[in-house]
Design brief:
The complex is a heterodimer of chains A (608) and B (346).
Chain A lengths: L37 H5 L2 E4 L14 H17 L5 E9 L2 E8 L3 H20 L1 H21 L12 H4 L6 H44 L5 H8 L8 H15 L12 H10 L3 H15 L20 H15 L8 H17 L3 H49 L14 H17 L5 H19 L7 E3 L8 H7 L3 H11 L6 E3 L1 E4 L2 E9 L13 E4 L7 H4 L4 E4 L7 H8 L4 E3 L4 H4 L5 E5 L4 E5 L2
Parallel strand pairs in A: 7-8, 8-9, 9-10
Antiparallel strand pairs in A: 1-3, 1-4, 2-3, 5-12, 6-10, 7-11, 11-12
Helix pairs in contact in A: 2-6, 4-6, 4-13, 6-7, 6-13, 6-14, 8-10, 8-11, 9-10
Chain B lengths: L4 E3 L8 H16 L7 E4 L1 H11 L1 H10 L6 H16 L5 H17 L7 E7 L15 E5 L2 H13 L4 H9 L9 E7 L3 E8 L10 E8 L3 H5 L5 E6 L4 E6 L5 E3 L5 E3 L2 H4 L6 H18 L3 E8 L8 E8 L10 H17 L1
Antiparallel strand pairs in B: 1-2, 2-5, 3-4, 3-5, 6-7, 6-12, 7-8, 8-9, 10-11, 12-13
Helix pairs in contact in B: 3-4, 4-6, 4-7, 5-6
Classes of the chains: A alpha+beta (608), B alpha+beta (346).
């Protein structure tokens, strides 16, 4: 890359990794830079959303980016009417998702939108609890609807009921209808996701801004700590693992849960134990719904929930059991965490003048009111909805394979959602007519080509940004959710022009300074490679990595803000963490020695 | 009989009109159990008595009435005269005896026959919020007998009429003779390290930060700015040192008040360890709560006292600096958003 000082490469200048040429055709046209829209793209700033998509995405998986930024846009720009912001524009580059916040700059327009916002947002804030209760039932209904969708293989002859009940409608049509219904509900849950999230973050920002004004040097993590919950749904999956570990130790079956054994082996040996049945029953009880939990965020079809890969929770349970055997206490000290939180709040409040303290109380109450939503919505959307969505998609993929349309289920994901719609109709119509589907050969060739492209795309990590950065980043959500600040952009620019490679700057997410050996984790399956005392380096850490945190000495991520469950857990473990470094997984290698400073947000490469 | 001197523990030592700003601060601290260097106060009536009894007050009034207040040269000429008047006009004997007895009593109590003390001015107009008078009046260090203390008390009084102090008083519309000056006499701490602590960030105005600057020896190097002190930032709520910056402490001041060079190896050694910085910050936090405002505190770590119990506060006063607020584009964007959210939520 040449020495660039004031901008990143434009979207259309992005160079495809060798072997990935032509990747653009895999995605819907509107997700890809087009020659006609270059002026628009060039003057804007696009940064990688590796928080949600940490790897290059298969064509079908781009449905997530479409649903997320449709839901985000429609709620922020059109429904709640945020005064100074529209939605986030979205593009794919080399298989990664890039986003671009759209600001409203005309003061008169902001005023006009403000009046609309007051009325609409006001309604939500005033009725938050009942609207949140309503939200949960809407979400549960959507999840149940998705679960009920059937994708049965095409029969040779229609069932007799089609005739005897005078249905006059082919079972094959259910495949087409249910695919549409599944996609519809997927887009619906993402509208629900943003229905309250922007308002939730907005309310949090009131408290954040107040703290920053009163205490200009306060660390973001301290503000988050004053608001964050200590109990609740967001903590349940990990709490259940701790509970199962305790039960295993109590029943003396914990040695069976050996981290080196496959999940099937563990379950089979457990069944042979005297107390094994009791433990297995307890396991079975928590799997629905708490193991419908992605190790990451469930945006990619090849990500697995705990239910789909039991070795992930079993491994965590074995680690907790080991801690117990070593005499450690693994329960989260809920009461103490409550006390600590109350004490910090009281102490900061005591530093304020009386009228400031009143404003502090108001902002804190507002933030705490919305925070359960901020913490829990992921369970409903990113975990539970995504788990059922991908399960149903796999059922549909199997139908394609059974019909001989695809050679293997994995072929499905090399088509985007619109191409799947075409292929599905092709398959159903050919079946109806009684001729070979036209797409079998057509797609077989293309899938082989795309398989090579995906392989090449996956050899690289995402460039942090494209286009023309603003002289100052002022979008509160870009800063709060993605950690994209003016300083960060400047560092990315410097690093993109071949600057300092021995130091990385991120955001201090959890205090402390530690030196240790790097372990770069690119996939959840690699978590088991972590050794005690190592520093976990990843694109983003997921909530379910909590048990790994009891082993590592520190955490460094490419991207992320301070409000995630993972950041909270990190702070609970008292372990230094630096997030949003932009380049950590690209620049650091397993085995290197680094020093991370969780006060300043720095990562330093040390001599071996 | 008039109490010309007061201990830090006496009830009337809590009256600023009696003991001035500095004395008041010390009495507050001492009575709250916060460690201060042992000493006593020569109360303001002694000052008044001296000016009245010796005729010095009238002499000063006449002299000040006769000069051009805006002329620095005239003020400097007056200063030279005033210093000579005070040097040659001893205290009335009852006052002189009280001062000497005060010193001797302190010396006996500490079992130090040649006790070195500091003589510090503590004016009633000094150290109040708004006008700091910081550094306008004199402090003398290293007096070792009653006679010498008596002389330097007079020199402190004289310092209210220095060219600089007069300029400052007149600029702030304060009559220099209306300033009542108490004097604090304190043991010179045998400081291993010393410095200044702000219970607010002086750069950002953040009230959740405590900033400490410290050097080897007495704190004169930090106050006078002739050494680069070590700097510590402590998170007030969490009680953690979050930043430490090593200074270059090429000088250190001994108990005699004189500067000595510091050997090369010790310049790059931190003058305070983390637990001392944290212990100090706890004292600072208590003082701030007690006085209801951010404090500027001079402290020392006494060489002769055991670790953990070796902090001595020399003085404290309210912080008078205010930090100008500048709004960045991000602040404005955030402010706009939060204002609309707040309005909607009400």
């Amino acid at each position: 890359m040449n020495a660039l000082t004031d901008r990143f490469p434009y979207l259309h200048e992005a160079k495809a990794p060798s072997g990935a040429e032509g990747w653009e055709r895999m995605y819907p046209y509107f997700l890809v830079s087009q020659p006609d829209g270059r002026d628009f793209e060039q003057e804007r700033f696009w940064f990688a959303d590796s928080m949600h998509w940490s790897r290059a995405v298969h064509p079908f998986d781009s449905i997530g980016a479409e649903a997320v930024y449709y839901g985000c846009g429609v709620n922020g720009a059109r429904s709640i009417v945020l005064p100074a912001a529209l939605g986030l524009d979205v593009r794919m580059v080399n298989g990664f998702v890039y986003i671009c916040p759209q600001a409203v700059s005309d003061p008169a327009e902001i005023q006009r939108r403000l009046a609309l916002f007051q009325e609409r947002a006001g309604h939500y804030y005033k009725n938050w609890d009942s609207l949140y209760a309503n939200w949960k039932s809407k979400m549960t209904a959507a999840i149940d609807r998705m679960k009920s969708l059937q994708f049965a293989s095409l029969p040779e002859i229609e069932p007799i009921e089609i005739v005897t009940e005078g249905q006059g409608r082919s079972v094959s049509w259910s495949l087409v209808e249910n695919y549409h219904r599944l996609v519809d509900d997927f887009f619906l849950v993402w509208q629900y996701h943003f229905e309250m999230l922007g308002l939730g973050y907005g309310a949090y920002l009131v408290f954040f801004d107040l703290c920053k004004k009163a205490f200009p040097e306060i660390q973001d993590q301290t503000i988050a700590r004053m608001v964050a919950g200590v109990e609740g749904m967001a903590f349940r999956p990990d709490d259940e693992l701790r509970r199962l570990a305790k039960l295993a130790v109590e029943l003396n079956v914990d040695p069976i849960i050996n981290a080196n054994d496959a999940a099937d082996t563990v379950l089979a040996s457990m069944a042979k134990q005297a107390n094994g049945a009791r433990w297995l029953a307890a396991l079975e009880e928590v799997r629905e719904p708490w193991f419908n939990y992605f190790a990451e965020y469930g945006f990619l079809h090849d990500q697995e929930t705990w239910n789909e890969n039991l070795s992930i929770p079993l491994h965590a349970i074995s680690r907790y059991a080991e801690l117990l055997r070593n005499g450690e206490v693994i329960d989260r000290p809920v009461e103490k965490l409550h006390e600590d939180r109350d004490e910090i709040v009281a102490e900061y409040r005591a530093l304020l003048a009386p009228e400031e303290a009143r404003a502090f109380d108001e902002a804190l109450a507002l933030s705490r009111n919305v925070f359960p939503y901020i913490e829990e919505h992921n369970i409903y959307v990113e975990h539970w909805s995504h788990a059922v969505f991908w399960r149903k998609i796999r059922e549909l993929a199997d139908v394609f394979v059974a019909a001989g349309f695809f050679r293997q289920a994995g072929d499905f994901y090399f088509l985007n959602r619109f191409e799947i719609d075409q292929a599905l109709f092709d398959m159903v119509e050919s079946w109806a007519i009684g001729v070979p589907a036209r797409g079998v050969q057509h797609w077989a060739r293309e899938i082989e080509a795309r398989r090579k492209i995906m392989g090449a795309l996956r050899t690289e990590t995402a460039a942090p940004a494209y286009g023309t950065p603003p002289s100052e980043v002022t979008d509160p959500f870009a800063i709060m959710n993605y950690g994209v600040t003016t300083e960060r952009v400047q560092q990315w620019l410097a690093q993109a022009s071949g600057g300092n490679a021995t130091a990385l700057q991120g955001i201090a997410a959890s205090p402390g300074v530690i030196e240790g050996i790097v372990r770069v984790i690119r996939h959840e399956n690699e978590i088991s490679e972590l050794k005690p005392g190592e520093i976990l380096v990843a694109a983003i850490t997921a909530p379910s990595w909590a048990s790994a945190f009891s082993v590592v000495a520190g955490v460094v991520t490419d991207i992320g803000g301070l409000m995630s469950h993972a950041a909270i857990v990190c702070r609970e473990y008292g372990m230094p963490a630096v997030v949003s470094t932009g380049f950590a997984t690209a620049q650091l290698k397993t085995g290197q020695r680094i020093r991370i400073d969780g006060y300043k947000g720095t990562v330093e490469l040390l001599a071996a | 009989m008039q109490d010309w001197t007061l201990t830090f523990e006496q009830q009337s030592a809590l009256e600023p009109a009696q003991v001035g700003g500095k004395g008041h601060g010390l009495a507050l601290m001492a009575q709250a159990g916060i460690p201060v260097a042992p000493g006593f106060i020569i109360a303001t009536p002694a000052h008044r008595h001296y000016l009245d009894e010796t005729g010095m007050g009238e002499r000063l009034r006449n002299a000040m009435d006769g000069i051009d207040k805006h002329s620095l040269e005239a003020r400097e000429a007056l200063e030279r005269e005033v210093v000579a008047w005070f040097d040659h006009t001893p205290m009335p004997s009852e006052l002189r005896n009280a001062v000497i007895q005060g010193y001797d009593g302190l010396s006996r109590a500490l079992q130090l026959p040649e006790l070195a003390v500091a003589v510090r001015s503590s004016a009633t107009a000094e150290d109040t919020e708004g006008t700091s008078f910081a550094g306008e009046y004199e402090t003398y260090v290293g007096m070792k007998n009653g006679d010498d203390v008596e002389l330097h008390v007079r020199r402190c009084w004289a310092s209210a009429f220095s060219a600089r102090a007069l300029g400052y008083a007149w600029k702030n519309n304060i009559d220099p003779l209306a300033v009542h000056m108490a004097i604090v006499i304190q043991k010179v701490v045998d400081a291993r390290a010393a410095g200044v602590m702000f219970t607010i960030s002086p750069t950002t105005g953040d009230r959740s930060r405590i900033v400490i600057e410290a050097c080897h020896g007495l704190g004169l190097g930090v106050v006078g700015g002739d050494v680069t002190p070590d700097r510590y930032v402590v998170a007030k709520v969490e009680g953690q040192v979050i930043e430490r910056v090593l200074g270059d402490k090429h000088l250190e001041y001994g108990p005699d008040g004189k500067a000595h060079p510091v050997e090369a190896g010790r310049r790059e050694i931190f003058s305070l360890n983390d637990s001392e910085a944290i212990a100090l910050s706890k004292v600072g936090k208590r003082l701030e709560r007690m006085r209801g405002a951010p404090q500027d505190i001079e402290f020392a770590i006494d060489r002769e006292l055991p670790s953990g119990d070796n902090i001595v506060l020399l003085q404290c006063r309210p912080v008078t600096v205010t930090v100008p607020k500048t709004a960045s584009p991000l602040d404005r964007a955030l402010g706009q958003l939060t204002a609309s959210v707040l309005a909607a939520s009400r």
